[in-house]
Amino acid sequence: MLPDSPRFLASVGRYDEAQQVLNKIRCHKCSQSEIDLEYKEIIATVQEGKPSSPLQFAKILIGKGGNPGSNLGRRAWLCIWLQIMASWTGITAVTAYSPVLLGQAGYSELTQNGLAGGLNTIGILGTIISTQIVDRIGRRKCLMLGSLVLFVVELVAGSVYEASLHQPDKASQFAPAAVAMLFLFNLGYAATWGTVAFLIPTEIFPSDLRAQGNGFGITGWAIGVGMTTLVNPIMFASIGSRSYFLLAGLNLLWVPTIFLFYPETRNRSLESIDYLFSTSSPFYWDMERAFQLCMDGKVEKHVDEQAIKVAGQDEAQQEFHETIQQRV
Predict the structure, then answer these.
(1) Residue 152 phi/psi, 5° resolution?
(2) I need a labelling partner for 92 at 20 to 30 A (CA). Which of 60, 102, 227, 247 fits?
(3) The pTM is what?
(4) Highest taxon of the source (predicted)?
């Protein structure tokens, strides 16, 4: 059975168990001093946490919630816009309108439905790929690489559909290429945006507000899906397969957006991620600089505490030996 998380155990006052679980899950890749530092961060976060209320959701959204300097409003909007961007990669067009798109490629109704089912199923493979790469290359690189892949795929897909419209006698020859692009799109999306866009909102909020953070992400998802579901039929009716070129351009736009404004959370404890938002600057490099400054201060403080502890132990041992010698 899986143990309770260290943060849950600490939140209910079971500190010894929290430390034991943390030691068990970190012992193979972290030093004891790093584990002790993370444990102290968890305890400090739990002790500083406050009960949240529905009103807190609205306060955070307008930048009024949380402790001064925590920049919760910026975190909320990062979560919302991330999911809106995910919807505008083109995933709703491919998922909801794949039978129509396959029909344009010249397939029969039966074949359309079969291929549409395959498009949804290949997402499972993409999710498995995501579990293998998201902690290796990081969240930011996953999103930027995913955008570039989707940009290329949609550019090719749009070109294929345009070619089939201008040369209807060769539509059957273009059809396999169109289907291949749809499958590659679903695979690329599931391996990058489809998972990371839901992961980041659960990581960048403090422990006591993590549920609200995920709520902001779901809000962005609902807005994005609702918006694209309404716009897609109008867009495809107006400009047809050239819609793919528009979506490709948006994917290209998401690359600098992610690079400039979204933090990297890979290999960082949930408590230390707060340090990324200790600066009022929205830019990635300033968040990294603030994180490093805070971590250097934490490590220095931890080293000082350990030195004081060792010095105290040495002093106690010396007093003990002196007492023994006096008695002798």
Answers:
(1) -65, -45
(2) 60
(3) 0.80
(4) Eukaryota
